Amino acid sequence: MSNSQNKTDVILIGAGIMSATLGTLLKELAPEWEIKVFEKLAVAGEESSNEWNNAGTGHAALCELNYTPEKSDGSVDIGKAIKINEQFQLSKQFWSYLVSRNLIRNPQDFIMPIPHMSFVQGEKNVAFLKKRFEALSNIPLFKGMEFSDDPVKLREWFPLIMEGRTVNEPIAATKIDSGTDVNFGALTRMLIDHLKSQNVEIHYKHHVQDIKRASDGSWKVKVLDIDSGTIEYHTAKFIFIGAGGGSLPLLQKTGIPESKRIGGFPVSGLFMVCKNPDVVAKHHAKVYGKAKVGAPPMSVPHLDTRYIDNQKTLLFGPFAGFSPKFLKTGSYFDLIRSIKIDNVLTMLAAGVKEMALTKYLIEQVMLSNEQRMEELREFIPTAKSEDWDIVVAGQRVQVIKDTKEGKGTLQFGTEVVSAADGSVAALLGASPGASTAVHVMLEVLEKCFPQQMKVWEPKIKEMIPSYGVSLVANPDLLHEIHASTSQTLGLAERELVYS
Q: SS3 helix, strand, coil % of the chain, rounded to 5?
C-alpha cells in the first residue's frame, strides 16, 4: 500500500464503546469524513467494554453510594450524583435516536430495566442512607426512590438477601425502579457494525505501536498487522486513543505536553457468578452496598441481576486485585514501561500516599475462595460455594496526576486528555466510563472541534435534546425525555414483564 492511500481524516484506536460512540457521532455530524478504526484484538468490544469485564450498571448514581459522599458537617454531597445521572440521560437519548432511525436495532439486546437498590447495615450507615434518600428524593432525576428500614418490606424488595438473615442491627435500603442493566459489549458490537455499514474501515488484529507528529501537523501512526507481520503507516488530521488501559502508553508516545506527569495505577477485578438457576430466579435488582474503609470506590460490593446473551444471570463483586498489566490481554511490563522521567515523581508520590490502597489490593488478591464466600454471605446469608464460579473482570487503569490536592493524586473517574490544538485526544480512567460514553465523547468534540461545534449544534440537539440544558432545572423536559427514551428503548413495557 502506498502512503498516499493511507491518509484519512480520523483514526480511532481501539474498537470499544468509546471509539464506537465517537465514530457514530462523527458519522452523523460529518458523514463525508473518512474514519479508520484499529483494534489489536480479533473482535470489537473485547476489553473494558465486554459484558463480562464490567458491572453493566447503567451508572446513574441511583444506588452507588460512593457518588454521594458524606461531608464533614454530616450532610450528604449530591453534586456528583446529579452530574452522573444527567450524563447517563444523554446516553439514553443518543441510543434512542439511533434506534428510532433504525441505525441500531433490538434495544432489548443491550438495555434492560432493573430496579437499583442501596443496602446498608449498622446504625451509622442507616442514618447516612436516610440522609442520602432525603437529599435525593426531592430531585426530579431521582423521582420514585423509596426508603425502608422495615425487614418485612426489605423481604419484598430482595428476598434472597433477607433469606436466613438474623437481623440483630439496624438495616435499610433504598429502591428505585428506573434503573437499567446495560450490555456494553453488545452495544459496542452494534455500533461497530453500524459504522462498517457507513464505510468506516475497521481493522482487527492491528496493533498501533507508535504515534508521531508529521511536519504538516497531522499524525503518523505506525501499525503492525498481527497476522501478516507487516508494518503499515497511516496519517490522519485527528486521532482518538480509546484503548482502555492501553491508552496511557499511546498518549505518552504522542509527546504532547498534556501527556506529561500523568501515571496509571492498574487495578484488576474478579466477580462471582451464580450457576444455580433457582438462586438466580430469586433475585431481581442491582443492589449496591458500602465500600469497606480503605477500599477504592470501584470495589463497592454489589449483587447484580444481569442480562447477558438474553439470559438472566447473577453476579457478585467485584473483588479488587493488582496486576501490572494495563489490559487483560496486556503485558506484565505495562506498568514499568509507563514510568517515564516526567512522571516518575508523580508515580512515587502516589506510591507513598496510597500505601493503604496497595495493602488492601494485596489482601484482596490473597483471599481464598472460602473468604470470598464469607463476603458474599454478608449479602446472601444462605449462599453455597457450589453455586458460584469466579470470573476474571477487566483491567482498569486509574489516573495518577499532580493536582491542587498534591503530587501524585489518584483520580477515580473518567478523564479526557487532549492536545491544545485538538488534533489528538485520549480517554483515561475508569467508572462511570461506558455509561457516560456519550457525554465524554461530546466533551472530546467540544475540545477538539470547537470551530465545527456551532454548525453541528442543531444536529446534536436533534440527537440529544437535553444537550447543553440542565435537566434538574427543567423537570418538564426531563419528564418528556424520560417518557420518550423509555418507549423507544422498550424499557417501560419490559419493566412490567420482568417485575
A: 40, 25, 35
